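Page 42, continued from yesterday. The earlier attempt failed because a stray header line got pasted into the input along with the sequence. Redoing it now with the clean sequence only.
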Amino acid sequence: MPSSPAITLFGAAGEVTGSCTLLECDAGRLLIDFGLFQGSPAEEWRNAEAPPIDFASIDAVVVTHAHVDHCGRLGMLPRLGFRGVVIATPATARLLPRVLRGSASLQAMRVREFETGTMPLARVIDPPPDAEAVARLVRSELPPVIYDHRDAEMISARIEALRYLEWREIREGLRVRLHDASHILGSASVEVEIASRSGGPARRALFSGDLGPSAQTLLGPRARPPQVDVVVMESTNGARRFGAPAEIDEALAAVIARAASNESRVLMPTFSLGRAQQLLHRLVRLRAAGRWHGLPVYLDSPMAAFASELHQKFPEALSESVRRDALSGVAPLHFPELHALHSRRQSLKVERSRHAAIILAGSGFCDAGPILHHLAGAIEDPANEIVLSGHQIEGTLGHGLAAEARRVQIGTQVLEVRARRTRVEGLSGHADQAELLEWVRSMPRAPELVLLNHGTDRGRSAIQPLLHEATGASVVTPAAGAVVQMN
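This time it went through. Structure tokens are written below.
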């Protein structure tokens, strides 16, 4: 145990996945998040190797939110000797067991697919994609299974819900509380207070988690950060600035109008937590504004449907106008034309019908999931439209479609890409550069030290001098495994 509190990043250091941060002090040891590395088969094998931490000595794991890059390795903890508590907000505590069971199922399915040669095939043929980028995504060996359903259930039984702003003592001299980060439902920043053994003032650290954009209208505003000495801060969009939200609504309204006029299909590849709810909320608003045209909407993701329904159970996390609807009994992310699909049979039935509709389906990278058969059935019709939002991993089908691929292969079918493609920028669930700066500036007093994590080297290096100029704080970009003292 270090003589002064110390922080070590064991993930998301110069990258945007694998969040895992260790805080050690005389009073105890905390782990903030234990997330999956994502992006390629090689990243999967990084997950199989646990960080060099004595997990039996960890007092608690605090989870900022239910995205797998922050929580996806929790299922490993029972086998690693962890016997403490997992702390999360009530909404995250509801989401985590389902996320972990889903991850366990996905790991087992990937093994079956590899062994039987039934892995989904989705690739660009023309123009030929970057060979190195594609090679990184090719699975050439049996994928790892880092935990199973039993492990997921064991760690789920250790989850304890903690409401925003309530202090929870971990051990004498060490306590935590959570602040609303407005990234997805239940997301939080984690404040840690460490009492001084000499009777002096306590030391405080704030772990931002993922911070949502201030202009979003589904969730409530981010909490104002408290006064702390040290901040561990995400920098996903440290080099980016976004346009006004109204531009996104106008782009989606134009897509809907074209689909209604052409009696065609709109496919929206999406992710189950966050992106799906953002899109649904914008569709709800367009419908209320009379810009809907009566098209049916199919949400082809049981996880997205569960998360969307959960919003009504936590009205305190929603924006003021949405909260009023939820408290009056109106489901904030539902409307009569919305249909949730809960089985492959239902999904295939919708695909075969070919009637005009809007379809939200996973995966957001178009590399697996129900979006593939929807694409196969719609991609050759020029009346149809594919709406792509957010980052696409190079080498995936989603990246190729965003880059104007002309011919693709999905399963055994080689298909001409004739459907219209529309990029909708600014739908990020992360605060942009200006908002990150403003979040730190809004602290009652500037911190002494800021550690930038959860960002590429480009994102971290772009915002680093701006943060120093704005606050006067020392701003560092620790490498994975580097120990930073909270002196």
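Notes: The first helix runs from residue 41 to 48.
Reminder to self: strip header lines before submitting.
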